[in-house]
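Attaching the record inline, Q. Sequence:
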Amino acid sequence: MTGDQCTLALNISEHLFNLTTESLRLRSNETRCYQTLESLLAERVHLPCALESHDPKTIRDHLSAIPTTGDIRINLTITKSSADSLDAAKRLISEGLGSEISLGDTLSIMLFLYIVDQKAAKILQRIGLDSSACVSSSQPAGDDDPPDNVVPFR
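Structure, as predicted:
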């Protein structure tokens, strides 16, 4: 551990390991650059609390479906500020769920929500909406004429 970094050692389940690798695959494809779990965590840890945009039942269902603890050992070397943010997220989610969760659970929730966000963006893109502006990608903003392949409701 250096002055601004710390290492977290976690024993995770095979299901959580698969969630980590799928998250890294999606992130690498998104950025067109190989990513690490540490870089993805650093990118996501400062985002708003999971419970602000997702029902606590969804989070509980995820934790029930994806066991956290297992026999696969991973070591995460992250910055002190990321570790502090991860701990703060853990506390907020624990309070919102009304039960204590582990750092592994927090990591699992963050990765799950990343995948949900990616899938939602892909669906919006497929139906012609930009996930950031929610306007049709085939039509310039402010153009009131629908594209030729759309039949308006009357």
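Strands lie at 5-12, 72-79. Confidence is low (pLDDT under 50) at residues 133-144.

More tomorrow.
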